Amino acid sequence: MRRKFNKTEIIMFKQIILVASALVALTIAASSCGGGKTEEVVDSTAVDTSMVMEAAPDTVAQAPTVEVPAAVTAAFQAKYPTATVAADGWESEDEGIYEVEFTMDSKTYEAEFDSTGVWRETDTPMQESEVPAAVTKSLKAGKYKAATVLAIESLELPKYPKLVEYQLAKGTDTMTVRFDEKGKEVVIK
């Protein structure tokens, strides 16, 4: 199963790409301009970048409303009775999978259910300080020690109730790796 990034992560990655693109454009413009013209190029590029970055979240917020089967909403409510779902919190993925973004106990979660209401997974973002020490030790001492951490999530699956999932970058490649609480890497097929 290949994990999809949530809305917040997609917006963050888009903003990072936009800022990086703007920095490249600034560098090229600065090296080709002489004297006082560099300042003008920097100012106009900064304005353009901020306008694009402000527009990105609006694009995501305009997602169409999804009709969710009653079995799915019933299963969700049974599993998470105190959860609050945002107005645009439901998405329909390929193959009859429904994803819901919700808040509970002041945390944001995403859960997936199939069209019959069978729960598939739940994840929530984590801070590095929340990761068990054994997991941090395994990541830093193992084959991923040279990788850059892009995101960390707590992942709950039917067969694996508590996993830590990392989105990593190594060079131009990105990868997803998962560890149990004891620091053992878990490969899910």
Commentary on this structure:
- An eight-stranded antiparallel beta sheet has the order 1-2-3-4-5-6-7-8, with helices on one face.
- The longest helix has 26 residues, at 7-32.
- The protein is elongated and about 45 Å long.
- A hairpin with a 2-residue loop joins strand 6 (163-170) and strand 7.
- It has helices at residues 7-32, 37-61, 70-79, 133-141; strands spanning 84-93, 97-104, 107-114, 119-125, 148-156, 163-170, 173-180, 185-186.
- It is of the alpha+beta class and 189 residues long.
- Helix 1 runs antiparallel to helix 2 (37-61).
Largest sheet: 8 strands, antiparallel
Q: Tell the overall outline.
A: elongated
Show unreliable segments: 35-63
Strand coverage percent = 25-35%
Count every helix, treating DSSP H or I runs of 4 or more residues as helices. 4
> What's the architecture of the largest domain in CATH terms?
Roll
Strand runs, count: 8
Level-1 CATH class name of the largest domain = Alpha Beta
Helix content bin: 25-40%
* Spatial order of the strands forming the largest sheet: 1-2-3-4-5-6-7-8
SSE run = HHHEEEEHEEEE
**Alpha carbon gap, first and last residue:** 6 Å
Q: Provide the CATH topology of the largest domain.
A: Nuclear Transport Factor 2, Chain: A
Q: What do the pLDDT scores average to? A: 77
Number of domains: 3
Gyration radius over CA? 21 Å
What class do helices, strands and sheet pairing give? alpha+beta
Question: Can you summarize this structure?
Answer:
Helix content is 37%, strand content 32%. With 189 residues, it is of the alpha+beta class. Strand 7 and strand 8 form a beta hairpin.
